[in-house]
Design a protein that fits this description.
This protein has 10 helices and 15 strands. With 267 residues, the chain is α/β, with parallel strands linked by helices. The chain has 2 domains: 136 residues, serine acetyltransferase, domain 1, CATH 1.10.3130.10; 114 residues, UDP N-Acetylglucosamine Acyltransferase, domain 1, CATH 2.160.10.10. The strands form 3 sheets. A 6-stranded mixed beta sheet has the order 3-6-9-12-14-15. It has a 5-stranded parallel beta sheet with strand order 1-4-7-10-13. It is globular. GO terms for molecular function: serine O-acetyltransferase activity.
């Protein structure tokens, strides 16, 4: 068994770390043994654990756990990017969220992480022409997690959505890699226009709580949007915007604002 674990750790250090944390958690709190065994230790890979959690959380009287599990297993088996993104997202949450002390926390307890992974399966369904199923996933993610992400939206990897309540991401929105956003963020349209109508968020962007980014505008790489701002126009790279409507108030303050998570604007 130790030799097997060593091989897993070498090939998949994130999953190995999660399993070690789960074993330690069971020793510390035996009453949670069933939770950690069924959620983590029973599964050979992170993908299988994610598929289990997806089916457990989104099942309803309209769609059974078994069917949802089969859908998720199919998605993970056919698209390795889903597992790659899931690992990058776990690392992102662990590194950026001061409330996250273990790698297992996003997988087991954080609805922002779980909502994004469920969205990724919905997006896979959408891109494979299974749009009604994708809409069902979107509906259930909204009902269960309070996060509404259209399955056609494109979201990169290494994404953290902290707290996540009331986050809305529209149909033609694009979110780059290594983006951090907080609760009540909206990436929306400006009215009843159709077509490409939602924001394009660059890599490394930090979006503060309650910010609204509206319309087919571009937010440049490594920029920073202050909490409560309403952004209606393009944002250049490496700048900070704030206000209603938002205006440039300075530089981003560092090379990677989404990683540093510094939301204080120097006067």
């Amino acid at each position: 068994m130790p030799e097997t674990r060593a091989k897993v750790a070498e090939v998949d250090p994130v999953w190995s770390h999660i399993c070690e944390e789960a074993r330690a958690a069971v020793r510390e709190e035996p009453i949670l043994g069933g939770l950690f065994h069924t959620g983590i230790l029973h599964h050979p890979t992170l993908e299988r654990a994610l598929a289990y959690r997806f089916s457990l959380k989104l099942a309803s009287g309209e769609m059974s756990e078994q069917i949802l599990r089969e859908i998720a297993d199919e998605a993970y088996a056919n698209d390795p990017y889903l597992g790659e993104a899931a690992r990058a997202d776990i690392v992102a949450v662990h590194d950026r969220d001061p409330a996250c002390h273990r790698f297992l926390q996003p997988l087991m307890f954080f609805k922002g992480y779980q909502a994004v992974q469920a969205y990724r399966i919905g997006h896979w369904l959408w891109t494979h022409g299974r749009r009604d199923l994708a809409y069902f996933v979107q509906m259930r993610v909204s009902e269960v997690f309070g996060v509404d992400i259209h399955p056609n939206a494109r979201i990169g990897k290494g994404v953290m959505i902290d707290h996540a309540h009331s986050v809305v991401i529209g149909e033609t929105a694009v979110v780059g890699d290594n983006v951090s956003m907080l609760h009540s963020v909206t990436l929306g349209g400006t009215g009843k226009e159709e077509g490409d109508r939602h924001p394009k968020i660059g890599d490394g962007v930090l979006i503060g709580a309650g910010a609204k980014v509206l319309g087919n505008i571009r937010v440049g790489n490594c920029s920073r949007i202050a909490a409560g701002s309403v952004v209606l126009h393009d944002v250049p790279p490496c700048k900070t915007v704030a206000g209603v409507p938002a205006r440039i108030v300075g530089d981003a303050g560092c090379d990677q604002p989404a990683l540093k998570m510094d939301q204080v604007i120097d006067e």
